[in-house]
Structure formats: structure tokens, C-alpha cells
Predict the structure.
Amino acid sequence: MEGCPTQTERAMSYPVDILANGDWDTLKQSSEAYLSRLRNRDKAATEIFRLINGEKLAVTPSTVTFLHVHREDNEHRVLGLLNPQDNQAVVAVYLGERWWVLDDALRTSNDARRELVQSVAEQIVLYLLNRIIYRRREFLPGNILFLHHPANQFAKIFWKNGEAVGFYTVKQKGSLCTDCTSQCYQLPVLDTLFVRQSYQRQGIGLKILHEFCSIFSGDEAVGISRPISGAMYKVCSKYLYSRPHEQERVWEVEAPGDWSQRVNVWLQIQMGAIPSVITDTTAGGNPSLPSPEEE
């Protein structure tokens, strides 16, 4: 299957495995020490990094930069290697005392990995998926740009075949809507959802929606952030058609999600209020889902 690591690659330990118990202070010290060595290195001893396609890049102070993993601070950061031909293109990250191409930084040797984003390495994987893979590589006109994730946000990475293929984040009930207001979310809200292009149309969006609703099954209502794309509405249509007991429970909401700021998703589908939604939910095949919220 496309995107699957080989047997040899599966035997490796990747950053998310190696740094399972890592901390930001150690990572910061390692990065700063490496950058200091790089700046003091003799030009005749330039380090060369080889990409997967065989291309060789010189690692110099001008091609290395700090990437800020969380939007609210400058301390949580990692070193990124830039392509000299495009100083916006990150091609590798420095973790565990070495450089890793992005493909390997997004892999795991643990096929059973399926957990909340908690460790330092998982936070970095979430950053790479959102800010590098989605925003720089797979963003299409008409898609929704996701904000830089805060450190304390509820987030889960979706792993498949030993590869990080997507993520979703949740605004939890009772959490502040923003740092500039005292308003809190009145229900749990599925805030962002992204699946990489090579793994779309495999039912992952449907699985994530089911997982979200199941995690918060004790809540009378759950929300999905407005605006919901037509593609995401297709996922909702299929999910709610097969689970009638959820139809009155899922809402499209604006923060903080009181009754004047929510509309029932199933009602919207039944009324045909979303033109791009396939309302014939008896159809057997998966709908085409071309945007990041879809699958």
C-alpha cells in the first residue's frame, strides 16, 4: 500500500519512539549545542544531509532555523533544515541528536500507537502535520487554515501503517474560548480535523467523528466548529444516517456554543441547506472527500 514503511523501516525507532520520555529542556539544550557547533565549524568540514530522493543539502547556519511548536511561547521549539532553493520549505528536523527527514519524523515503530498528544515528540508530530504537511504541502484553495495549536489543547494523532496520517483537536466543555475572554465552551467541540491526501477516502474521517462522539458520549450534545465544509457534511451525513440515536446530539456551533449559536447538523442535511451534501444517504459507496476535514 502506498505510504507504508518497509519491514526494515518498521524495525527502526523513530523520534516519536525515541523521545517518548523526552522533555523540552533537554531538547532545547541539544538543539542549542548543535547550532553552536555548526556556527563554529570549519567551512571545509561542511555537513551534508541526504534526502530520500538522493539530493544532497549542505547544513549551514543559513539553512537551519528554529521552528516554534506552540503559538503561545518561544521556548518549545526544534531545529528545522530548510531547502536552500525555498527558505519556506522544511525538509528535516533535528531530534535525538540527529537530523530526520519529515517522512521518518512522522513514523513510529509501534503499530499500536493511538493516544492523546501528550509527549514532546507527539506535540512535534502534531506541529509537523499542521504547519508543514498541511499548510505547506497539501493546502488547496478553498480549504480552511488551522491556527497554530496551543500546548494544552486536547489533540489526537491518527496513526496507520506506522505513519501519522492525520489529527483532530477538541475544544473541551468549560475551556476558555480565547485568552481574551471569560466565555467558556458550553459543549465539547470538534475544532480541527485533517487527513493527509494519500490516506483520504479510506474512512478515516468517519472513524474520527465516531471516536469524538464516543469519547464524549456522556455529554447531551457535541459540536463541530463552524463553518463545516461540504466534505465534512458528507462525513456527518453518513455517520448520522447509520446512527439515528446521534442525530439530535451533533451540532454545528460558534463559540461558546449556547443555543443561539448552534444548528443541528442532521436537520441541516435533511433540509438540503448544504448544497454540496449528498443527501441520498442510502448510497453504498464512500463520498468523495477532497478537503482536510473530510477523511
Q: What stands out?
A: Confidence is low (pLDDT under 50) at residues 1-11, 277-295.
